[in-house]
């Protein structure tokens, strides 16, 4: 797993980097301060961040808050390491948006235990996002199908009448009186279709109704919407 590490102590950076690498992880950045770590995160977000609390230019908690407020910042797992260990300190770390907290000195065993927790959390979040994306796609495709059925249901009849009368006029098969009636019908059908399109454009809270048994379609009739059958 790629790891972004930030600590102003070069010895600590080296120690953590060695432990991470021995655990099979890749340290993509070993920043000496919070500002440097932030720039690195913006350029190449890492799934796991290990941050020292007290750093120059930007401390670990401010960096944590900034990451959480960024686009997709909720996807990162953030572990804060510090010499502080009071209940108030832990509360401050969690309030800043960190997922976990470690007190110094850091041992290889304690760090590996925390990393196993991070890996599981990251896997669970990835699975959840994948499921949510599949659900959004399914809902989108279902919406397209319901809209298509609604348009077919509402537009087919007036469109058929419009086209058939147009074809009769183009073929010269109508006398003057019949042609006049056909033109009136064409205008009426065009207005019906335009009204359907207008209702669709103004639909703020679309609902669906049963259509042909188990199939459903979007309710775009006048008065349709929230009060229609769910």
What would you say this structure looks like, in words?
- This protein has 230 residues and is an alpha/beta fold.
- It folds into two domains: 2-106, Rossmann fold, CATH 3.40.50; 136-218, no CATH class.
- Helices cover 57% and strands 14% of the residues.
- It has six helices and seven strands.
- Helix 2 (34-43) runs parallel beside helix 3 (60-68) and helix 5 (108-170) runs antiparallel to helix 6.
- The longest helix is centred in the middle third of the chain and has 63 residues, at 108-170.
- The model is unreliable at 225-230 (pLDDT under 50).
Order of helices and strands: EHEHEHEHEHHEE
Ends apart, CA distance between termini: 45 Å
- Helix and strand content put the structural class at alpha/beta
Gyration radius, to the nearest Å? 31 Å
Can you say what the CATH homologous superfamily of the largest domain is? Response regulator
Number of domains: 2
Q: Could you tell me the strand content as a percent range?
A: 5-15%
> Can you give the helix content as a percent range?
55-70%
Number of strands: 7
Order of strands in the sheet with most strands: 2-1-3-4-5
Low-confidence stretches: 225-230
Strand count, sense and barrel status of the largest sheet are: 5 strands, parallel
Briefly note the CATH topology name of the largest domain: Rossmann fold
Level-2 CATH architecture of the largest domain:
3-Layer(aba) Sandwich
Shape: rod-shaped
